[in-house]
Structure formats: C-alpha cells, structure tokens
Model the fold of this input.
Amino acid sequence: MDQNIILTGLENFDDIEKTKVNLILNSDLKKIKGFSGTLQVQGKKLQKQGKKSSYVFTGKYQLPEDTIYAESNEWELEKALHSLINKVNNSVKHKYKK
Done:
C-alpha cells in the first residue's frame, strides 16, 4: 500500500511519543484497504497541571475525488491515534459502500 503521511505539530512531543505516533500510524493505516491518498495528521499535546497530558489529533485524508476529516481527543496517546484512524476508516467505508 502506497500512502503518504504528513505529520505536523509534534514539536511538544518527546522522542518516545514521536516514535509511537509513527509506529501506530504505519500499522493502523493498513486498515484502510483499497484506497490510496494522502493522510495529513496534526498532533497537539495539551499540558495539564500535574503529570497527565491530553492528546488531540486532527486528520485530513485526501483522496482523488474527496476529502475526509476526523478528530480525536484522548488522555492516552495510543487511544487518540487509534480513534483517529478508526474514524477515518469508518468515514471511508461509509462514503464508498457498495
């Protein structure tokens, strides 16, 4: 599968979090089968008081004939990314039902 991934907004993420983002995106994009396009992901790490942070990911999946937008907001990095990919995948399935 030849898909382009453009990541932005990861300046506040540490190296471990950046590695997790890359691994999760590369593995989860296999869920979107049969569609080639460009996925633009913007990540934000919202610092809260204390040790916990909230993660917000916004995705734009550009297909030749359409654009799909999705957003997720979670306390855990993995959940936020999985949620974003699932939302994009569900939107693709819904738009291209046979």
About this structure: The chain has two helices and four strands. Residues 59 and 70 are 5 Å apart (CA to CA). The longest strand covers residues 38-47. The mean pLDDT is 86.
